[in-house]
Design brief:
single chain, 80 residues, mainly alpha, 434 Repressor (Amino-terminal Domain), 4 helices
């Protein structure tokens, strides 16, 4: 299997951005609230939500735990 192409990587980032934002809004949280719950910086939450971040696996795991979802759910087709 070859390397993930730019288009595929861009889609993964878009999915991540939409899912984090949707899940955060669903809880009525601000970016600051999510950052506090996940013990990460608010700037990272913001960067993830606009698709400009390249977060570590540790940060993604913290986000998933704070949002109450499996890590894989952050990358799936956008949640409703």
């Amino acid at each position: 299997m070859g390397r993930m192409g730019k288009r595929s990587l861009a889609q993964v980032r878009r999915n991540l951005a939409r899912n984090v934002r949707t899940l955060r809004h669903g809880r009525g949280w601000s970016q600051h609230d999510l950052a506090d719950e996940a013990a990460i910086r608010q700037a990272l939450v913001s960067a993830i939500e606009v698709g400009s971040a390249n977060p570590t696996l540790e940060s993604l795991d913290k986000l998933a735990a704070a949002l109450g979802v499996d890590l894989a759910n952050l990358f799936s087709a956008p949640v409703a």
